[in-house]
Structures are given as structure tokens and as C-alpha cells.
Amino acid sequence: MSEELQQQISLEPERYELAAAAPYRFDLDRRDFFRFLGAGILVASVLKPAVIAQESGGARQRRGDSLPQEIDAWLHVGENGKVTVCTGKAEMGQNIRTSLSQGVAEELRVPMGNIDLVMGDTQFTPFDMGTFGSRTTPTMNLQLRKVAAAAREMLIGLAAAQWGTDRQNLSSAEGKVTDAQTNRSLEYSALTKGQQLTQTVTSDTALIPASGWKVAGQSALKVDGREFVTGRHRYPSDQKLSEMLYGKVLRPPSFGATLLSVDTQKAEQMGATVVHDGNFVGAAAANAELAAAAISAIHAEWKSEPQPSSKELFDYLRKNTSEGKDPSGDGDRYDVGAVDQALSSADHRLQQTYTVSYIAHVPLEPRAALAKWDGDKVTVWTGTQRPFGVRGQLAEAFRIPEDQVRVLMPDTGSGYGGKHTGETAIEAARLARAAKRPVKLTWTREEEFTWAYFRPAGVIDVSSGVRNDGSITAWEFHNYNSGSAGIRTYYEIPNQRIVFHAANSPLRQGSYRALAATANHFARESHMDEMAHSLKMDPLEFRLKNLKDERLRAVFTAAAKQFGWGIRDKTLPGRGFGMGGGYEKLGNIATFAEVQVDRKSGDVKVVRVVSAFECGAIVNPDNLRNQIEGSNVQGLGGALFEAIEFENGKILNGRMSQYRVPRFSDVPVLETVLLDRKDLPSVGAGECPMIGLAPAIANAIFDATGVRLRSLPLVPEGLKAS
Amino acid sequence: MTTIRLTVNGSAYTVDADAQTSLLSVLREHLDLTGSKYGCGEGQCGACTVLIDGKAQRSCITKVATVSQKQITTIEGLASGEQLHPVQQAFLEAGALQCGYCTSGMIMSAVALLRRNPEPKESEIIAFMDGNVCRCGTYPRIVSAIQKAAKVAKGTSAGKGAGR
Lengths: 722, 164
Known about the structure:
The complex is a heterodimer of chains A (722) and B (164). Chain A is of the alpha+beta class and 722 residues long. Helix content of chain A is 29%, strand content 24%. With 164 residues, chain B is an alpha+beta fold. Chain B folds into 2 domains: 76 residues, Beta-grasp domain (Ubiquitin-like (UB roll)); 72 residues, Orthogonal Bundle (DNA polymerase, domain 1). At the A-B interface, helix 8 and helix 19 of A face helix 1, helix 2, helix 3, helix 4 and helix 5 of B.
């Protein structure tokens, strides 16, 4: 990775994802395509220029007989009736392999089992920026439905020509075109026989409205679920090649340490291939134990610099602001009206500071890669949310053109925003080049905790002014370092000053599911509660008084109803109720939480969580519930107890036994209300449902105890009466 | 290096490995049984869970030399041909997975639980399964899947009983 890129990653979450993409080159022309896939029909999806600029880093010129450069997905119906769909998106547990198949099955009218999705392979799939930001459903699902619809219309056209009839008489279902008048029908496989037809689709392709969906809009089981429950699925860390070696890297004693001297003689005598290249020292050997032993046998001297610790983190961030920006979020600065005047003339003023810690993604499958060189071409199987981004990193690291690099991403053991970069790919490839054999490298859990990147920590200062009648008149919001996603308020406030201040983060930081929206919603929704209490207003009533957005009002109202807000039994000692919610990644969430606090033991238990979520027309209700439940469970960790502790460039709790993640016994009763808006476009759901939880819990703890907690995690040591 | 005999999923294997090597490494690297996963290396996450003489054990902290006389069952040995084990079937039907990386370990732990306690209460499931981590947060679905599998198993054994 270049220093510049490293710098961007360390300074600003997600900025690197928005840097201009490597030029997309579509290597196959249409003849190659049919040679590769066999005869049939091929439909490619071409992005609109505006979307291209956003998703692919710029429009490109078309050349010769090749297909258009801006293809973002394609679909092929073969002579055997099998449908092959190609997209650069990656599967890591969001179940998009299933939901995208549903969209295709719906429009093309074929059984789900006939569809094969090729994903995340830089040689065969069109360029894609990466799988993040809840973009798959609003963009790729739509594009795939369009290519499928166009393919269906082509097949109907072929049948009409074959029968010499008007296409108006024909319809398609179950992989066949049927003429209702004559009752004759033709399988897609018969229609595609010997054909080599291509078509591109653009924005004007008509789609089946959500109200008419039969396959989409229904719950469907994970398409290849059987492979997972039998252990047959091969994750990146399960990949194997003959003659393969196992790799291991010598890690510095602290972040940013430089190598002064190294003695690799002993390791070499053990039969390992040892590479010393700049600050990189690694070994490859016949088995993982030997590679680890070889690394242990290396004697190295490092020079370390003193660094800040987690104890002084929040002061440090405030004092070490930088000139950076965070274009991934909602903008770095937003001003409206006259905040200072409005604050001084408000009936009530409130000023508070909220903080969030660094947390780790802890994907259960650590980063892993298998690399293999053929001459000066390298192929890498790795777990990443950005196969094309990793291709670029490899090309840069080895100073070779991108077309000499192929990255494949087998469905991976989760990411949550943590697998955007290609460290293991580069490490494995470096060792494989030296060993002249394939090398697999899997990070240990400790490496994963230390050498990956973290969800940014942050400090948020909020000042507000409100009138006696409960209308908010002034809102000043300063976020230091955590990021600008979700920084804008959806409450109607005439005077606002909202600023994101980048800071020099002491730890390497990057994307994490929902980005800074978790921190910003925690601060905003906690503060809303504090304002309501200072006015002695009901927190729900106070929110609704200041909220016009109909979609947000709808989720708050629906969640309140399901939760029984206002009619819950408040007489139970230690019991409390709270809410939080908001808008992020085009989705709308309201989360209500019920907690039980035992001030004697300090035990804080979240006993019940109700989420109401709206993301337009629902594509797969059961999978949507699964994502919302999962967001809540994962969110519990960051809300209650997860925090990375560090000192002088070292992680102090980088093991599963030292860093607590949510377990079975932490899980509350989870109730989910889905608002299905068939009249609205479908949007993503992997991130937004998480953002309301932390403030809902903090507000519930206040309700239970009168103790206002303004730092995430809220109760890493419990909440004993002082 | 020692020559170690292992019985895995009913088949006998001979492997040359250091006696200190973890069973997980031997399963994955020597026998290419990659269904058991590495998650933490310290027995904290349960992704590597296998059955040793019917009991759930963390293969990442089990030294291979200690299990040479025992019956080892991994996720690969659970189904009978194409017929899934009731726990596998229940996980599939309950949608009790997202990325699926914890699934092998979850299923092996659940199988061990149901062998010991065929009709576990919800609280017993939670207590037994608490050493298995799912980062995607599918815990409530896993509890449902285990309850479902228990019901199916009970139905099957009741059916058998009636036929006798």
C-alpha cells in the first residue's frame, strides 16, 4: 500500500473508497463472451453517466467491437436454459447472492435454481467499487432486474419470430414462453439454441412493480445454504492448491516501528523461505507451525516512537485536529440560520459532550489470502469487500499492470466494513513470489485485532436551544474524528451549525458497519432525550413535535405501538425504557429498548428491543429480519462493552478472551416491525438498523437509574451504585 | 514429528505431525477437512468445535496426540450421504446463518447438547451454547433451530417407538 493511501485510511474513514477507481477494462469482446459461455443471449447493464461517476469512478470510452465500457453487470441465458449472472459485488453474509437471484428470477421468470451468480472475480465480473454503503439493493438489484427483464423480452421476441405471431399474445413463466391462444410453449433453452444475441439495457427498461412481485418480496432461504451447513463451502481461508506453502509475517512490537536490524539465518536453516524487504519480514514453509516457528526464530531490532494511549484519547483527538475531509458522509460543514443568536435567546439551553471508543470488527473469519504466480501474473483468493480495490493494491505493491492481477473472493466469513483492504493478499503474494510456490496466509486473531483497522473513536459536542413549548430553535454539533455519516439532523431546526473535524487518529481507522452514523445518532438521540427531560416532556412526543419527515415519523410511531410506549409497567425496580432512531443509507429506523439495571451487582441487561424499519419495497422479508436482528446483536457490543484499549502503539486487549463480543446470553428479546413500502424503491438494510440501538439503551438506562451515560461503550464495567 | 493414528468420521487416518499440533490444524491441513474453522485459537469462539467421543470440544486447543484413541466427528461426518442431520436441516430452514463461518461449530455444539439433553429448555440452550460466537448475530435463530431439531428428533423417536 502506498504511503499516501495509508495516510488517507488513517485520517479519514472511507475516503480511500471514494478515490478514483482504477480504469475499468472489459477484456472480453462479444465473440469471446460466447466462446466462454456458449451460445445463447447476453444482456449487459450499462450505468447512467451520473451513476458511473459515483460507482465506477468515471465514464469511459467505448472501443471497436467491444461491449460498452460502463457495464456493471451482465446476464447470459445459455442453450441449456441455465442463467449466468455476473456482478462485481461480494457475498459475506448479507445474503445478496439470494436476494439478487430473487430479482433475476422475478423478471426473467425462471426458477431460482436455474440461476448461477458469478461474484467478486476481477477477471470475469465487471468493475465494481466494492460492497459497502448498503448499495447492493438500491443499485445492483435494480440493474440485475433490468437485464433480466430485457432478456425476458428478447426471449419473447424470439418465440414470436419463430411462431410468426404477435408478441402481444405471448407470456413467459417458469423458464418458458407460452402462447395462451394456441397453448404452445417453448423452453428458454430451445429459444437460445444457436443464438449469439447481445443487448444492452439502460435506465428506461420497464420493471415489474413491487406490488406485482411473486418471487421477489417473498422470503427465500440462502440459495447455497446446504454448502454452509455441511461445511463444504470453501471460504478464503479454506482454499488450497497443490505444492502450497503457509505464510507468516514478523510483526513489529508497536505501530509505526521501523526495522533496524534483522537476523534470519536460523529461520532459513529450518527450511523456510524467508523474505526481508524493507520493513517486511515474512516466512513461508510447508506447514503453518513451521512458518510460525521460523518467524519466532528471527531476531529483529525495532525502533519505536512514543504514542498516545486510550486513557488520553478524547483529549488527544480534540487537540489534534487536521485539515482532512470526510466525503463519505453527509458533508463536513452545514450552516443554516443564526445559531449563536438562537442559542442565546432560547428558553432552555443544553450543552453536552459524547464520546465513542475505537472498536474492532472481529469478523469470525480473519483476513486470509492464497496467492499464486504464473510468470509475472498473480492470482489471489482472498476475503475482501473490494476485490477490485485489492487488485489495485497488488498492482501497486508489485509494480505490475492491473491486468496481470486477478483477485477472486469466495463467499467470505463476514466483513462489517472491516475487509476493504488487501494486507493478506499482498503478504501472501510477496512470499509466493519468493518461494516460487503458492502461499496461503491467514491472520491469527491477535493479528486481526492489531493490524486491521478500527471503527474510529470520536468526541461529539452538542449545544442546543429550545423553546418552552418544545420546539428546538438552535443546534450546534461538532464531531471530532468519528466521521460525518449521519451527522445532519432530521429534526426541523431553523438554526444549525454542524461541523466534522478530522483529527490525527492515533490508531489506523476505517469503515465499520454504519460508519459514523452510530456515533452521530448516539449523540443526537441521547441529546434529544436530555432536552425532553429538561422540559419534562415525553421523549416520543418531543421527537414527533420536531419531526416532519413522514417516513421517520412512521417508524417511530410503529415501534412505539409495538413496544407499548407509555403503557409499559414502570413500577419494576431497575427497569427502564428508551428510544433512538434516525435515517441512514436511505433506510429509516426506530429502536425502543427495555433494560434491567441492578445497582447492587452493577449488572445491566437489555431485556427487550423493538425495531421498526422501513427500506422501501422489501425484497426478502426473512432475510431483512435476519439483518435487523443481527444489527441489534452486533450493536449491543459497541453500545455496552466493546472498546479497544491501547498504549504506546500496542493493543492491550487484542484477543477474544480479552475483548468481549456479544454472546447468546447477552441477547434480548428482539421484535421487528417491517414497514413494506411497495411504492418506494428498495434500499439496503445491512447498516441502518444498527444506529438507533445505543441511544435507546442509554436513554433506557437513564430512565431506570437517573444516571446519564454519554460514552460508548456505556457500561463496560457494569453500573454499580456509587 | 510423530506418527499419529486418528479416527475421523468413522475413517482411520495416519498423519505425521508434531504431537503438540492442534487437532484443528491436522483436520484442516493434513486431512483437508476444512469445515472446522479457526476463529480465535484459544477456545473462546467455538468455530472449531468437533465431537470427541460424542462430546463437544474445541479442536484449536486440543493437541492431536491426545485424541488418537478417540472417535472424532466433524461437520463433514454429520450428514448421511445427501440426508442432512436434523440439526443441519433445522439451521437451513430457520435461516440460522448469515456468513455461515460459525455454523459448523454451532451445529456441532448443538448436536452435542441434544445428545446430552434431547429436550433442552431455552435457558439450557443459551447456557450450553454461550461459548460459541456468531458475529453476524443470528443467536435467536440458532436457538429456534435447536428447538426445532429437538422437536423433529423427538417426533422421529416417538414414531420409531410406535412402530415397535
